[in-house]
Amino acid sequence: MESTTPNETLVAARPSLLNSRCSLLTDQVFPLLDLLRCLVFWPPASDFIFSESNWRVLFGVSLGHRDLPQANCLLVLRLLANAVAADGPRCLAPTATDSSLSRSLVTVIDFVPKLSQMVDRIKEDITQRKQHQVALATLLHNMAVLAHLAASSKIGTSPLLTSLRVIPSLCIRLNLSFLSLGPNHGPGGITLFHPDAVFALILGLGTALLSATLADTSDEIVKARRVRLISSAAPALNASAQPTSQGVEPNHTVEDELAAWEKVRGVIDYWASTPTCVPKVRGAAIDLLRLLE
């Protein structure tokens, strides 16, 4: 019988462990998910967790499940956020090659557009689940930071830079969608959100704006680009605009964009001026307004 090293034994055991655990009922798999969100910081484990077949199983018992089991969804959101924090620096290293693009980042980048399609389904329910808010906001913040670092430093592989190109606009749209829920509930809307979640959403929104509008011209032109970009992502504008034809982007008039900007400014000002907001949230919102005005 051939001998194996301890590491080889562990690697050989992992497939059977994952398959056996995920064959359990959906409401019994959360201890494994809790373990995986920690193991993802070990590169070999990350590559295994986010292999195509394994991720399909993990997604199916959490965010892809029709009932959206709450514990599983929370832990998988944390897993995704940790994966970006763990594997992002590896792919941005000066020594990274095209083959260095980790499977976890490919998975997360592919997932973010799907998350934008899930927003209408989860955003009202998420006001009742503050830990989910923090996990989701952390994921969006980490993605915005990764996209900004890749775009501003020009460090990273070509596949990574290409894949991240759409992330800032998606983060802007998603962050605004969740931040706009607060004003819908008046001053009491502050209590529906975890301060850390709102803080991360505002930071992610500002970071996404910076990466999407790198300062290559005058400050006035850059600010105008930022205002137009954030206005085009406003939930009110997207809800009212109709495509001109199939597959063609909606036409927005100047009046539409001005109205959308007023809506966006009102959302940010809500978090900047409501007295019951914690200081760090108000400060971040004030800084975001300065970035735009």
Report on this model:
This protein is an all-alpha fold and 293 residues long. The chain has a single domain, classed as Leucine-rich Repeat Variant (Alpha Horseshoe), CATH 1.25.10. Helices cover 70% and strands 0% of the residues. It is built from 15 helices and no strands. Helix 2 (30-39) packs parallel to helix 5, helix 6 (103-122) packs parallel to helix 9 and helix 12 packs across helix 14. The radius of gyration is 21 Å and the shape is globular. Residues 1-17 and 236-249 have low confidence and may be disordered.
Counting DSSP E segments of at least 2 residues, the number of strands comes to: 0
What is the molecular shape? globular
- In the CATH scheme, what's the topology name? Leucine-rich Repeat Variant
Please state the structural category.
mainly alpha
Descriptive labels:
ARM-like, 293 residues, PUL domain-containing protein, 15 helices, Leucine-rich Repeat Variant
State the gist of this model:
With 293 residues, this protein is mainly α. It is 70% helix and 0% strand. The longest helix has 24 residues, at 130-153.
Topology:
Blueprint: H1 6-22, H2 30-39, H3 43-49, H4 52-60, H5 70-92, H6 103-122, H7 130-153, H8 158-163, H9 167-179, H10 181-184, H11 195-212, H12 219-232, H13 235-240, H14 254-273, H15 279-292
